[in-house]
Amino acid sequence: MTDIILLSDHRVAATRVADNGEPLVDTRRTAALRVDTRKADEDGSYAHVRADVLRRLLVAQGALPPGLRLLLVEGFRPPGLQRRYFEEYSATLRAADPAASPARVRELASAYISPPEVAPHVSGGAVDLTLCAEDGTELPLGTEVNATPEESAGACRTAADTVGAVARAHRAVLGRAMTAAGFVNYPTEWWHWSYGDRYWALLSGAPAAPYGPTERSRT
């Protein structure tokens, strides 16, 4: 698959889910992993991921060069929040181009925010992250985490050739570590990686996605 597959692609929605029931766990309880607070919500959902995703994040971190760390920005996203993000961004796109068809708006929105019904974050299998030094100082990767295609002039794309050599090198370091740990990247967002969700299953050729939409246990 050489072309970018957006999350709005019918093949993503058609991918079978066989949720294995793996629980969400709080990454903040793992001292080895740095967790940022810029996307923090009141109940801490942002810091949760599926248990095997956390294990794989630690594998990826162990593959980084000495002195570098992963910095987790966001993991699990409740379905209601995902829906709100998608609708708000879609409204922004419609306002910018009132003539755009609903299908076109959905396609454009999906390059940045996943449609709620197939969103990797609501499965607990997706993470938004970057690299930092041991003291927490973020490394330059070309754009801010969560930069939109419009505000970054497309530099948010993982393979964008408009970012500098240092940023490209850092993206390559991140990519090697995350890929080796079993994650796949969403090519329109250098910071977005997932394991076990529908998108991962489609790209990796798995017969089914082990993670479907989930909710946090409140017990």
From TrEMBL:
Q: Which superkingdom does the taxonomy of this entry point to?
A: Bacteria
Which Pfam families is this protein grouped with?
Answer: Peptidase_M15
Paste the cofactor note.
Answer: Binds 1 zinc ion per subunit.
Q: Which residues bind Zn(2+)?
A: H121, D128, H192
The reaction(s) annotated as catalysed by this protein in its Swiss-Prot or TrEMBL entry are: D-alanyl-D-alanine + H2O = 2 D-alanine
Looking up InterPro entries in the UniProt record yields: A_A_dipeptidase (IPR000755), Zn_M74/Hedgehog-like (IPR009045)
> Which residues does the annotation list for site: Transition state stabilizer?
R77
Gene3D superfamilies xrefs: 3.30.1380.10
Q: What class of enzyme is it?
A: hydrolase
Matching entries from HAMAP family are given as:
A_A_dipeptidase (MF_01924)
Q: What does this protein do?
A: Catalyzes hydrolysis of the D-alanyl-D-alanine dipeptide.
What family is reported? Answer: Belongs to the peptidase M15D family.
Protein name listed in UniProt: D-alanyl-D-alanine dipeptidase
Q: Which organism is it from?
A: Streptomyces longwoodensis
Q: What is the lineage of its organism?
A: Bacteria, Bacillati, Actinomycetota, Actinomycetes, Kitasatosporales
